[in-house]
Amino acid sequence: MRELVQWDDDPARLRALAEAAGVKLNLFIGADTTLASQIEKIEGLADLVSAVEGPNEVRWWGVRHEGLTGAAAARELQRDLYQAVKASPLLHDKPVIQLSTGEADYYAELGDLTTWADYANPHTYFPSGAPAPGSDAWGGLPHVLHRVVEAQQITQGKPAIATEAGYSSAPLHPQGVSPEVQAKYNQRLLLESWETAGVKRTFLYELFDQGPDPSGSSYELNFGQFFADGRPKPAAEALHNLTTLLRDDGPAAATFTPVALDYRLLGLPETGEDMLLQRSDGAYLLVLWNDAQSWDDAANRMSDVPAVPVTIDLSRTFGTVRVYDTLVGTTAAKTYTGIEDFTVLVPDHAIVIELSGTAVPEAGRTPAAITLGDGGDELVLRVTQDAWQGDAQYTIAVNGVQIGGTLTAAALRGSGVSDSVTVRGDWGPGAHEATITFLNDRWGGTPDTDRNLYVEGISYNAAVVEGGEFGLWSNGKVSTGFMSGPAREPAVITLGDGGDALVLRVTQDAWQGDAQYTIAVNGVQIGGTLTAAALRGSGVSDSVTVRGHWGPGAHEATITFLNDRWGGTPDTDRNLYVEGVSYNTAVVEGGEFALWSNGRVSISTAQAGIDLL
Predict the structure, then answer these.
(1) What sections of 286-335 are H helices per DSSP?
(2) Nearest Cα to 379, choosing from 425, 426, 423?
């Protein structure tokens, strides 16, 4: 829940509301009371706070701070907010969201504020009731993604949280739609923000209508998901249905690793969209919608958008398939059993297709259980295949030495089972490499006439090996690394020479490879491409010392992340983190930041004893 902290004179009321509703708080500051008093209120709610946000839509609401006004005041207030949050013993671990502008042209006046926020902050509203992304695009990008790119102008290399978004259910206003279309568009906005634009969290504006509007002509009064008297609007019902169907309360919901599912959609229109999710109980949730124009602006009425028949061709047979219409409820509209392909009608709002149950293996196929080598260490691979005109054959090597002979796969991909291949050895502490070589590929020109080999997962001494899921679609080899013994040692690196020393503490999320980056001072790169070693959360960090003769005054250090990778979940993500920066032993303010995508972050530093600019 998002709330303006300066207007809340009773934090106890806000605490009671949040605890009763079971929600966390995103608190944003205002510019009409002192920052110190607002930080004090936020600290009193620290256990309920998920994030702290800068001032709202500063182009329209204005900012006054420390004798400044306009863009200069907004910059200084965002900086002071970030420093106050990170210095607070109660709030230092809370992310800070960038201020919002309310006007794209204002970004240029604000300049680069990357150092003073952990997240960019787009406000995604749509002119004339256009859907997201639908018919309106800017710079070749869908509108929702365009707004994210705009916001990242002042928050470079940072992910986005959209703290306002939505549609007004005022059908007689030029930018409004009907309550029924608001329900469709809000659903699609949330799905598009996550799937297309990578927005980590989106806040719908707002919970309740601001007041009754019998005429349906007031834009500002009708953004709520509930009417002003507390009755749910169609938007609230549709959102409840969608989140209920996508909810995962399983004990492993936050830790399990999703498994890919191959599927084809035949007949999906150009405006059609799809998103695949998996629950921790193994069931898949396929969300489909048609991102068509559902509102006729000229006639001020809902458009007639016929549902489109789409055939879903799955790669395996599921025991139970249920189809849900999120505008109708959370009871399945259709249920199928033991099917691999079927046809559904895709409307201009979300439908959810739940795929669950044990798949039916091909008759006579028993998965293989193979053990190779001997020793105290154990590498276990789960293997499947596409067995067109014969079974896939392969070999396994560790550290360049083949273990055993030629192996033949048995289990079919999509059957719900896999071969278990255990490779034993005594490999000792440190990094090792397993290589799987596919020997007898065959292809008849179509996806159904193809022989392939798949490694569905690898574990080493019972620990999951990152990057252990891959397919081999032609003859060749894939190698994956694994660690034996204690965690890797942090790197100690020195670059350049001179009397001044800039020291960075660096960590990473090393999914499918280590993070790589460069460092430049005053626009000049020092050294070559660096590779992170220490893992975030391991208690250690790489120490990178950059030396030079930079002289008195302020200087700029730029860290550029080069090889981001993301597999769709927090556990399948490669990121780079700077845990702290010092210059000639003095701590550099703003020297803690993360790079979640390729790009650069620049920080301003000065000689020890000189204030940070």
Answers:
(1) none
(2) 423
Provide the pLDDT for residue 488.
Answer: 65
As a residue count, the chain comes to 613
What is the residue-wise DSSP string for 323-372? EEETTT-SS-SEEEEEEEEEEEEE-SS-EEEEEES---PPTT----EEEE
pLDDT means over runs of 10, the chain (613 residues): 82 90 94 89 96 94 91 95 97 97 90 96 79 47 78 93 95 93 94 88 96 94 96 97 95 87 91 93 94 89 94 86 96 89 95 80 72 91 89 92 93 88 85 90 82 92 83 91 67 93 92 89 93 81 94 89 82 86 89 90 61 27
Phi-psi region for residue 216, left (φ > 0), alpha (ψ -120 to 50) or beta? left
Would the CA dihedral through 21, 17, 14, 61 be positive or negative? positive
**Structural contact between residues 557 and 506, judged by C-beta atoms closer than 8 angstroms:** no
290/309 Cα distance (integer angstroms): 11
Q: Do 473 and 583 sit in the same domain of this protein?
A: no
Question: Could you give the CA distance from residue 502 to residue 519 in angstroms, rounded to a whole number?
Answer: 11
Question: Are residues 297 and 232 part of one domain?
Answer: no
CB atoms within 10 A of CB 209: 24
- Residue corresponding to tokens 């259980």: 369
The answer to whether residue 23 sits within a structural domain is yes
Any residues with CB less than 8 A from the CB of 121 and at least 6 apart, and which?
53, 54, 97, 98, 99, 100, 151, 155, 160, 161, 162, 163
Q: Using an 8 Å Cβ cutoff, are 603 and 115 in contact? A: yes
Amino acid (one-letter) located at 91? L
Query: Does residue 316 sit in helix, strand or coil?
Result: strand
Q: Is residue 465 part of a domain?
A: yes
Q: Could you give the dihedral angle defined by the CA atoms of residues 13, 14, 20 and 23, in that order, rounded to the nearest 10 degrees? A: 180
Q: What is the pLDDT of residue 91?
A: 97
**Residue whose C-alpha is closest to residue 424's, from 395, 457, 456, 381:** 381
Residue type at position 27? L
Integer CA distances (angstroms), 61 to 10, 69, 72, 404, 476, in order: 23, 11, 14, 71, 61
Residue type, 513: G
454 contacts 411 by C-beta, under 8 angstroms: no
Distance between CA atoms of residues 518 and 522, nearest Å:
13
Residue 503's CATH number:
2.60.120
Please, are residues 383 and 357 in contact by the beta-carbon 8 Å criterion? no
- My answer on whether 230 and 313 are in the same domain is no
Task: Supply the DSSP symbol for 609.
Answer: T
Amino acid at 485: G
What CATH code is carried by the domain that includes residue 295? 2.60.40.1180
Residue 206: give the domain boundaries: 2-246
* 346 and 375 part of one domain: no
Q: Which two tokens stand for residue 517?
A: 């980056």
Identify whether residues 384 and 460 lie together within a single domain.
yes
